[in-house]
Amino acid sequence: MVNQKLFKQLKKFDPDLYELLKASFDRQISSLSLIPTDNAASPLSQYLKGSALGNDNIGYDMIEHYSRVEKLAIKRVCEIFKAEHAILRIGNHVAASRVVLQALAKNGDKILSFNLRKSEHCTGEQMQYDFIKFALEPHDLKLNFDKVRYSALKNKPVLIIYSPVNYPHNIDYKKLRSIADEVGAKLWVDLGQNSGLIAAKKIKSPVPYADVATFSASDALHGPQTGIILTKSKFAELIEKKVVDTGHVSLKKNVLAALAITFHEVDSEEYGHYAQQVLDNARALENGLKKSGVEVLCAPTENHLVLAKFPKNVDVKSTVKNLEQAGLLVDAENLMTSDDKISIPILRLSSLDPTTRALYEEDMFTIGLTLGEFLKSPQDSQSIKAVSKIIKEMVENLPLFSDEWLPESEIVQERDADLMMKALVYGTI
Cys-Cys link to 224, which of 38, 258, 324, 341 (CB 3.0-4.6 A)? Predict the structure, then answer.
């Protein structure tokens, strides 16, 4: 096979890069990730990203001069999300966020943001905004819209930002839109890893209510790592101009083609089944944690996200490191509340990648139970080995991307030798 020959040639020609590639593959295939941003790209997306289209560059002029492949990708993403306008020329999610901030706010402007989201993207003298936090209430871990409205009326922000990265419930976007309208603010919703569930119509979409929505095509959508901006038509020219002004003037056609196939796959029946399994697996993971006696916050989950509260006197950093040693990758954070004095250490867990690898409810329940018992254990070498044994047996024969989620007409066959990186995806090298 072509890719196997290239792999062997790489080993001989550049052993340093070969070792890096092999180590990455070995880590991915032998471990299991519950990190929300970890997920494999689909084989077709990987193929197109590595195709001859990568030799064909495009420049940026005006909207009417988009290339055919870019127009196709834009058409598909707008249809899926029912968006008025889409910008796909940005290489990553952080850059897309910075473009939106600079387009919709000026230095010194007040921005009302859930958990101060997007403030982390403001660096340098040219991006100085007054971020004001709204967050979950510490007594019930719910969003109090009356308090959000009060803060908006008091502070008169030019922009309201909502990003659900640490909240496993689906909020009432209509209420947030009403608050924004009342104070004359623009509403920006970052879809985060909920983008796939929204695209598959498994949870409510904020796009009809938001002036701007952003997300990445990777993680939930199985696409390339890019930044995507959806916007109302009335803001299209303003944001497009800022895209050019900030230097995001072109994106290779191979990446645009990978985006186009990603949106096509997302619109398939198979992806709908995947999205439903993501929901089912998240609830199973949650139930396993509960069975172990670990407290799960904001339960029951309504999306892919599960928040496990750290037991008292458990060191967060060492726990994450010990779990990684056992082959289970997790993300630890502090859950903010509206009280600056109160934050809660949590594991921020997702069912996205395990579902991509063809794990189901029984597996996820076992993972939750195993993880919960480990959190309450001494976390000594014996405990780490016990978790490692379970994870190793679970992932031993799993692909990085299951055939089950590929549209039937597009399932990769062994004879398709020109599919780049197929060996990596299926573990045949």
Answer: 258
